[in-house]
Amino acid sequence: MPDVAKAKTVAFMNDELFQALLTSVQQADAIINGKAESEVEVKAVRAKTGLTQEKFALLVGVSKRTLENWEQGRRHPTGPARALLKILNADPVGAMKALQLK
To answer: In this structure, are 99 and 74 located in the same domain?
Structure first.
């Protein structure tokens, strides 16, 4: 007979995992319904800056792994990171100058 306590702990997921899953479902729903915002081409933005993945990830404030996921289309930037990417895309030299990264 299975241990009920073990079964209960397996049935729950942590908040971080749940939020990631919820975000993915919401993104999929927006795409299906044609309500998704245009995506930022992260790799193209990074190319405009001339930075390596490591330095660009540091600039944007994410891990290199997250940046790789964005560049390969597995995940998409949101919130402040998305806004910063749009600024970097529009004026990479000015944005990097403002951020003191020449």
So the answer is: yes
Mean pLDDT of 55-80: 93
Same domain flag for 64 and 102: yes
- Strands annotated E in the chain: none
**52/55 Cα distance (integer angstroms):** 5
For residues 42 and 67, is the Cβ–Cβ distance under 8 A?
yes
Residue 9 has pLDDT above 60, yes or no: no
What is the mean predicted confidence (pLDDT) over 35-49? 84
For residue 19, pLDDT beyond 70: yes
What phi-psi label fits residue 79: left (phi over 0), alpha (psi between -120 and 50 degrees) or beta?
left
Q: Which domain holds residue 66?
A: 38-102
